[in-house]
Amino acid sequence: MAITLTQLHTFRRLSELGNFTRTAEELKLTQPAVALQVRSLQEHFAVPLVDIVKRRPVLTDAGRFLAQRAKSVLDDVATLEREMQEFTNARTGRLHLGATLTIGNYALAPLLAAFKGQHPQANVNVHIANAVRLAAHLKAGRIAVALAIGQIEDPDFDVIPFAEDHLVLVVPAVGHKLSKRRTVRAAELENEVFVAREAGSATRIIAERELAAKGVHIETQMVVPSLEGVSRAVEAGLGIAILSWLVVERAVNEGRLNVVEIRDLDLRRTFKIVSLRDRTMSPMAAEFVRFLQGSAVPEYRRQARVAPALPAPERAS
Predict the structure, then answer these.
(1) At a CB cut-off of 8 Å and minimum separation 6, what does 224 contact?
(2) Contact (Cβ atoms closer than 8 angstroms) between residue 264 and residue 169
(3) Same domain (yes/no): 173, 251
(4) Of the candidates 267, 201, 190, which has an alpha carbon nearest to the alpha carbon of residue 230?
(5) Phi and psi angles of residue 157, each rounded to the nearest 5 degrees, phi first
(6) Nearest residue to 124 (alpha-carbon basis) of 101, 90, 153
(7) Which residues contact 250 (CB under 8 A, 6 or more apart)?
(8) By the 8 A CB rule, do 230 and 196 touch?
(9) Is there a single domain that holds both residue 16 and residue 81?
(10) What digits encode the pLDDT tens for the residues 29-74?
(11) 52 and 96 together in one domain
(12) Helix 245-253 crosses helix 227-235 at what angle (to 10 degrees)?
């Protein structure tokens, strides 16, 4: 029969108190129950652990060794209990998280900073990849949660919306025929030079699909491998682009790009939390999902252009 933690705990206290009666009283046991547990340990190890000298227990060499090792084992168990309680309460633990490019590079950092502020002991690993690769990571158990854009059709996944993104048409701040425009209709973009990422990118797919629904078929004449690269190409006057507001917010606020609203096109899209159905999340992952559902992602707000202030009239001297 295997030894138990209860037996080790009883033997440890007996070794410290040196008295069957006091050990039994402290542990709320009978003296025969204490003696039975000691006898069970002796039978298991096939070696005497206690000699009875003048009706008092005196540890043998084997008993002293076992008492020392029992203390180490029980201390480790106490540490495990504490760590598991912290894990269960989502105060500590490792979070393996995946995100598609726009979310990972432009929305995730402030969210993680806020989450870490509430859970400073959390260890977070982030994998940035396209939606297809993130789906494979989820099924393989490499990540617990993925943050993705667009349609998720796989029945193996649970999908929860958590924020809304707004795609905007950006043009060079100066020098382009649309630079001074505030709005435009989709049909006016038919012959424009567009800059975009590769054909499989979620942003490009959505933009081309929505324009095609209006009968507008654009030809991307310049492909750049990163969202930041697309933004920079537009700044340089190489064309115009449809990008997430999160990508271009700083450039627009700094006056390097202008946003032109497409009046007859809805370019909103949803950020989604994706997890594997029927797989129990760790407490830390579940806490992160709850956190995301209560967090805000910066949204696009069209701002009226403010005319430059006129100089104050000079006073007559």
Answers:
(1) 195, 196, 197, 230, 233
(2) no
(3) yes
(4) 201
(5) -110, 145
(6) 90
(7) none
(8) yes
(9) yes
(10) 999 999 999 999 999 999 999 999 988 899 999 999 999 999 999 9
(11) no
(12) 40
Q: Across the strands, what pairs with 196?
A: 223
Nearest by Cα to 99 from 90, 91, 111: 111
Range of the domain at 35: 5-87
CA distance 224 to 107: 21
Same domain, 119 and 263: no
Q: 242 - beta bridge partners?
A: 169
CATH number, domain containing residue 136: 3.40.190.10
The answer to whether position 303 is within a domain reads no
Which phi and psi angles does 143 have, rounded to 5°? Answer: -130, 155
Domain end point (choices 87, 110, 145)? 87
Cβ–Cβ under 8 Å, residues 247 and 183: no
Q: Cα angle at 216 between 213 and 218, to 5 degrees?
A: 120
CA distance 250 to 99: 21
Indicate whether 152 and 281 sit together in one domain.
Answer: yes
Mean pLDDT of the chain: 87
What token pair was written down for 223?
């492909």
**Residue 240: pLDDT above 60?**
yes
Please report whether residue 304 resides in a domain: no
Residues 52 and 191 in one domain: no
Q: Which of these ranges, 38-42, 78-82, 164-168, 210-214, has the smallest mean pLDDT?
A: 78-82
